[in-house]
UniProtKB/TrEMBL annotation:
Cellular location(s): Cytoplasm
Binding site for iminosuccinate: 67, 84, 163-165, 184, 280-282, 297
EC number annotated for this UniProt entry: 2.5.1.72
Keyword Glycoprotein: no
Cofactor(s) annotated in UniProt: [4Fe-4S] cluster
Phylogenetic classification of the source organism: Bacteria, Bacillati, Actinomycetota, Actinomycetes, Micromonosporales
Protein origin, superkingdom: Bacteria
Record GO cellular component, one term: cytosol
Family: Belongs to the quinolinate synthase family. Type 3 subfamily.
Keyword presence, 4Fe-4S: yes
Gene it is expressed from: nadA
Protein name: Quinolinate synthase
Entry's cofactor comment: Binds 1 [4Fe-4S] cluster per subunit.
InterPro entries for this protein: NadA, NadA_sf, Quinolinate_synth_A_type3
MF term (GO), any: 4 iron, 4 sulfur cluster binding
């Protein structure tokens, strides 16, 4: 494997470098959906030229968004890069763009559709680019849990909070029940606000972000948090546990960040003396505790920008981003926290052939893979998103 800088070493391959999601067909989830269309071959030597030409032909009619976890071959065509919330904001700030091509995953395109004008079309280059974490909270399951809280008489005390990484259906549920959306940057502010509205929070769908924020930033005990498993009767919890809990965490997690373990941290500290371990709050609680720094994707990028030359960093987040950070900081030693590769398989479904196909379809007057959220869901989801924007 190539060295991309003097200090960067490509992690070794796992037998399954891409987590195998998206297999088979599962119409109730974001994944397992075939992408229509006649894609160009990945080996086509003209792909870069074709994407460049199609984008130039479309001009200001198209605006291409690229999430930080996208492949380099796609990111080079992005008009703007960012995390999911920044990209949704950027989409909303381009009311004149007829087409928003979202190089990210399905829930992000949904958020962009909610925040853009009705006549704008949001396009996902591969419909199979879902998010396994978002899929872990399905509306019917969440409504069943809420009914259980109502039967117990605690629903009036509970404020639902959902991470940005959730479907529009879940954001709509949260909006209808006077809750708020949060990102990994503002999770503490969202929880502070929620605990002013009620005495309990129902945190969806990422248990780790909820737990890490509550315990490490707000001073709760681990015992204040309970895990609601939608696959068990009554979430696998007793009535007493639910009555006593301050944080009811949904049993969801990110398949990528969930791979980092306490052993990854111990191992890198032995390999790289003096290393600073910097992880995303979607990592497990014990990993975040063992790290030196924790923060959102934007925090990680800024931390590397501010780091002194010669410092060493082991980063626990998606590999495409970590490799780009290593390239951008050749004066620092940047290491992937794990020894082996793990990309987000669904993010990686958006590759150059899908982007070329999408742009060329638009040039031909056809609009592929449009992501739309129905008006009722969008209206309710907007309430929860607006509440996030209004956080003190
Ligand atoms: S990195 Fe994790 S949270 Fe982000 S899209 Fe992939 S599975 Fe979802």
């Amino acid at each position: 494997m190539n060295l991309v800088t003097a200090t960067w070493t490509e992690p070794g391959n796992t037998p399954v470098a891409l987590l195998l999601l998206g297999k088979g067909s599962d119409p109730a989830s974001e994944r397992g959906v075939d992408c229509p269309g006649d894609l160009p071959a990945p080996s086509d030597p003209d792909l870069v030229a074709r994407a460049t030409a199609a984008k130039a032909t479309l001009g200001d009619r198209v605006f291409v968004l690229g999430h930080h976890y996208q492949r380099d071959e796609v990111i080079r065509f992005a008009d703007v890069t960012g995390d999911s919330f920044r990209l949704a904001q950027q989409a909303a700030a381009r009311p004149d763009a007829e087409f928003i091509v979202f190089c990210g995953v399905h829930f992000m395109a949904e958020s962009a559709d909610i925040l853009t004008k009705p006549e704008q079309r949001v396009i996902l280059p591969d419909l199979a680019a879902g998010c396994s974490m978002a899929d872990m909270a399905v509306l019917g399951q969440v409504e069943t849990a809420w009914e259980h809280f109502q039967d117990l008489g605690i629903a009036g005390d509970v404020v639902p909070v959902t991470y940005m990484n959730s479907s529009a259906d879940i954001k709509g549920f949260v909006g209808r029940n006077s809750g708020v959306v949060c990102t990994s940057s503002n999770a503490k502010r969202a929880l502070d606000w929620s605990f002013e509205q009620g005495s309990k929070v129902f945190f969806l769908p990422d248990q780790h972000l909820g737990r890490n924020t509550a315990v490490l930033e707000m001073g709760f005990d681990l015992d204040d948090c309970v895990l609601y498993d939608p696959h068990k009767p009554q979430g696998g919890l007793t009535d007493e546990q639910l009555r006593n809990a301050k944080m009811i965490l949904w049993r969801g997690h990110c398949s990528v960040h969930g791979r980092f373990t306490i052993d990854s941290v111990r191992d890198v500290r032995e390999r790289v003396p003096g290393v600073n371990v910097l992880v995303h709050p979607e990592c497990r609680h014990e990993v975040v505790r063992a790290a030196d720094y924790v923060g959102s994707t934007e925090y990680i990028i800024k931390a590397l920008d501010a780091a002194p030359a010669g410092s060493s960093w082991a980063i626990g987040t998606e590999l495409n981003l970590v490799r780009r950070l290593a390239l951008a900081h050749p004066d620092k030693q940047v290491t992937f926290l794990d020894r082996t590769v793990c990309y987000c398989s669904t993010m990686n479904r958006i590759d150059l052939p899908h982007l070329v196909w999408t742009l060329e379809e638009l040039v031909a007057g056809r609009v592929p893979n449009v992501i739309t959220v129905d008006e009722e869901t969008a209206r309710a989801a907007r309430i929860a998103l607006d509440q996030m924007l209004a956080l003190p």
